[in-house]
Design a protein that fits this description.
The complex is a heterodimer of chains A (315) and B (535). Chain A is mainly α and 315 residues long. Helices cover 77% and strands 0% of the residues of chain A. Classes of the chains: A mainly alpha (315), B alpha/beta (535). At the A-B interface, helix 1, helix 9 and helix 10 of A face helix 2, strand 6, helix 3 and helix 5 of B. Chain B: Keywords: ATP-binding, Nucleotide-binding, Transport.
């Protein structure tokens, strides 16, 4: 287990290093001067020179790379050019929305997908299975912004249970914050739940064909018992993979839903930064997202080992 | 006293009839053998008794077990019976256990699922049963996972699971087919001990007549979903009443007619392996320890003369496959040399195709060793890439197919249109087409039914004589090696522990390991055979 952990950690560090190099090269080394790009066509040469100086662009690329990475390690992500505040603060603020939203959506997705996938697998080929599979097909096909608008119409405008948009912050209490995130989380969770349920169903069905399931039946387990006691854990590996990918996506990919509900999340931050040519924010936020994705992958790898004893061999 | 009385059991899956009028009796505490070739319906009979058939299956007839009819029970009733009154073990121990659960939990589950014990009691019983099947808790704690055990040990766990609630009937479906011969002997011993000590009856399903001869009191012979013949084992073996049984018995120790090659006839070696060494690096036991090494082939030397049949026997993991790969020039050695007709065999591109063309191979799995998307002519012509496509390729493909007993027209078919035995003939045609000097037969007849195996062995003997081929015959099956080789090498832990003329080695083995192997191989008593052959 120690060795597994050590190797995963090493691969995590190496991936981060590689990612930081690619991002740095893409933004700073490719032709075109970041400073004049950020200022637009009409900027005077003096302003450009001043910005170049402020951004430290006059130093050699290796030195710039080291100072950028070194800064990030200390938690210094630079100062946003458009907002004039430290990028770290901006990101921290946005994460207060994006992280709970992603977790909320993920929890909802799992909550729906596990019973649906199990039920469909247990009733394979029967009406329940067909109904669940039909519903998941619909869940994948529906654009989530359309579903989001539907949710707003029904739950915010008609019944007035949840707010239609905006985010009051966590200062006003957890209840108000969660209420603001509920509809967006449902809209985000729907397609994810549909995919997850299908993956779980097919993983379960594949596992059910294994010899050890037949052994379990020969011991006197019912089909449902074999499904829950033997098949479920063996079917978890693909499910964990999908869950990890979904979390990474939810963290930054919720931009359309954030726009529908006027939520100040990470997705909107990066979108605005790109349209405003704020390369400092872009560079740092992308790096943070990469870090999040790699960290999630790392956690998923650890979860594999928790599920599957063969991956934590003591040698 | 009759424990199980099966009467007129018929089974259809969809429109296809699988079993017809299967009738037999198993007495309390006896071993009952059910033998037949693959597809004869042995396993289906067992699954029907267990109520584990696929959903589309329809059964008729009765199976009286005590005062209940197993075939008339609904699934809930069968669930209560399974594991409690009837236990079952299967062929493939490597996949029969859940890889995610400890062996203790899996044995205890049998008790827990039937609410036969509290959690603590179930673990205590699990410990006892594992000890009973030869896995004492000091060396095999309950917390082990299946992947930490060998195939034989896993089969012991499966047996412990099946007997945890002391069922009256244990169904064992090819329980030792996937195991080495010495492990097979141990597992059969264990099963026999359980029958004796626990008073359970054993329905032993196998394709191996020798296993039945050593174990069972009564036997039923199955073919095409019917019972051809049933009765006491000795009577059936001594005086089979039906042609099919006679054919099976004859095929099971079939010896092809072949002229033995005398050692003096041709002293020049075709293939010589000199002091071959191949090591594998294993994962580190801890973060800072050195990599341990496994010497899979440890200083092996051997020679094959033209036209000779050399056998190589040994159990799984002894290094047979590693050595074979080196001889075929697929894997590099770390020490020693392999020469083919005087030229060195080296893995990789530096070995010339014409040299490679002198050795061909036939492998075990007749299903996995062909690309299913190619037609037979393309499959058989594959070795031509070594020597270039000759102008008469078409004729040679046709000739090769006819030589192995197929027709020239078969070359337009795809591989799924052939049976296992036919596929193995196609594999031989593929090896033969470029006229090699040596064919490596790696468990080439192990997956075949006895009658088909006898035919393929005859074919091999005939081809050897007409083409002057040399064979390296690698097998775990001692009886086959004994029947078709001139000399034999016995391999253990990467070394050749005994070498000599086949007849001599089998008659008076010198090395203790050889003796153990020969003793462990199940045989039909000679006294029974004479009568059968006199027929």
């Amino acid at each position: 287990m120690t060795r597994y952990l050590f190797r995963r950690t090493l691969s995590l560090a190496l991936s981060l290093l590689a990612a930081s190099l690619v991002i740095f090269l893409a933004i700073e080394i490719v032709p075109g001067d970041p400073a004049s790009y950020m200022l637009g066509l009409n900027a005077s040469p003096e302003t450009v020179a001043a910005l170049r100086d402020q951004l430290g662009l006059n130093a050699a690329p290796p030195a710039r790379y080291l100072s950028w990475v070194g800064g990030m390690m200390r938690g210094d992500f630079g100062i946003s050019y458009t907002y004039r505040v430290p990028v770290a603060d901006l990101v921290a603020q946005r994460l207060q929305v994006s992280l709970p939203l992603a977790l909320f959506a993920l929890a909802l997705s799992a909550l729906v997908a596990f019973p649906a996938g199990l039920l469909a697998a247990a009733r394979r080929g029967r009406a329940t299975d067909t109904a669940i599979m039909g519903a998941t097909q619909l869940g994948i096909a529906l654009p989530n912004f359309w579903f989001a608008m539907l949710l707003v119409l029904v739950f915010a405008l008609h019944w007035r249970i949840f707010p239609a948009g905006g985010f009051p912050g966590w200062d006003g209490g957890i209840g108000a914050g969660l209420a603001a995130l509920t509809l967006p989380a449902i809209a985000l969770a729907l397609p994810q739940a549909a995919i997850l349920a299908r993956v779980l169903r097919s993983a379960l069905i594949e596992t059910e064909g294994q010899d050890y399931i037949r052994t379990a039946r020969a011991k006197g387990l019912t089909r449902t018992q074999t499904l829950i006691r033997h098949a479920l854990r063996n079917a978890m590996i693909p499910v964990l993979t999908i869950l990890g990918m979904q979390f990474s996506f939810l963290l930054a990919g919720a931009i359309i839903i954030e726009n529908v509900f006027y939520l100040p999340g990470l997705g909107r931050l990066i979108f605005q930064a790109i349209t405003q040519r704020d390369l400092i924010v872009v560079e740092s936020v992308v790096m943070i997202l990469v870090f999040a994705v790699i960290l999630v992958t790392f956690l998923v790898d650890l979860a594999y080992a928790l599920v599957d004893p063969r991956l934590r061999r003591r040698a | 006293m009759t424990l199980l009385a099966v009467r007129d059991l018929s089974l259809r899956i969809g429109p296809t009839p699988i079993l017809s009028d299967v009738t037999f009796d198993i007495a309390t505490g006896e071993v009952f053998g059910l033998v037949g070739e693959s597809g004869s319906g042995k396993s289906m009979t067992a699954l029907a008794l267990m109520g584990l058939l696929p959903g589309t299956a329809r059964t008729e007839g009765q199976a009286h077990f005590g005062d209940i009819d197993l075939l008339a029970q609904d699934d809930a009733a069968m669930t209560r019976l399974r594991g409690r009154d009837v236990g079952m073990i299967f062929q493939e121990p490597m996949t029969a256990l859940n890889p995610m659960k400890t062996i203790g939990d899996q044995v205890a589950e049998t008790l827990l699922i039937h609410r036969a014990a509290s959690r603590a009691d179930a673990r205590r019983v699990a410990r006892e049963k594992l000890e009973r099947v030869g896995l004492p808790p000091d060396r095999f704690p309950l917390s082990l996972y299946p992947h930490e055990l060998s195939g034989g040990q896993r089969q012991r766990v499966a047996i412990a699971m099946a007997i945890a609630l002391r069922p009256r009937l244990l169904i064992a479906d090819e329980p030792t087919t996937a195991l080495d011969v010495t492990t097979q002997a141990q597992i059969l011993d264990l099963l026999q001990g359980l029958v004796r000590d626990e008073g359970l009856a054993l329905l032993l399903i196998t394709h191996d007549l020798a296993v039945v001869a050593g174990m069972a009191r009564h036997v039923a012979v199955m073919q095409h979903g019917r019972i051809v013949e049933t009765g006491p084992v000795e009577r059936i073996f001594r005086a089979p009443g039906k042609d099919y049984t006679r054919q099976l018995l004859a095929a099971s120790d079939h010896r092809p007619a072949r002229k033995p090659q005398m050692p003096t006839s041709n002293p020049q070696a075709l293939l010589s392996v000199d002091n071959a060494v191949r090591e594998y690096v294993l994962p580190r036991p801890s973060a800072f320890a050195a990599h341990p090494r496994l010497r899979a082939v440890d200083g092996v030397s051997l020679a094959i003369r033209p036209g000779e049949s050399l056998g190589l026997v040994g159990e799984s993991g002894c290094g047979k496959s590693t050595l074979t790969r080196a001889i075929l020039g697929l894997d590099a050695l770390q020490g020693g040399t392999i020469r083919l007709g005087g030229a060195p065999v080296i893995a990789g591109r530096s070995m010339s195709p014409t040299l490679r063309a002198r050795v061909q191979a036939v492998f075990q799995d007749p299903y996995g060793s062909f690309n299913p998307r190619h037609r037979v002519d393309r499959l058989v012509a594959e070795p031509f890439h070594l020597i270039g496509l000759p102008p008469d390729a078409e004729d040679r493909i046709a000739a090769a197919l006819e030589e192995v007993g197929l027709s020239a027209a078969d070359r337009h078919k795809y591989i799924h249109e052939f049976s296992g035995g036919q596929r193995q003939r196609i594999a031989i045609a593929r090896a033969l087409i470029i006229r090699p000097d040596l064919i490596v037969l790696d468990e080439a007849v192990s997956a075949l039914d006895v009658r088909v195996r006898a035919q393929v062995l005859d074919l091999l003997a005939r081809l050897q004589e007409s083409h002057g081929l040399a064979y390296l015959f690698i097998s775990h099956d001692l009886s086959v090696v004994r029947a078709v080789t001139d000399r034999v090498l016995v391999m253990q832990s990467g070394r050749i522990v005994e070498a000599g003329e086949t007849a001599r080695v089998f008659a008076s083995p010198e090395h203790p390991y050889t003796r153990r192997l020969i003793a462990a191989a199940p045989t039909i008593p000679d006294a029974w055979k004479e009568h059968a052959h006199a027929d």
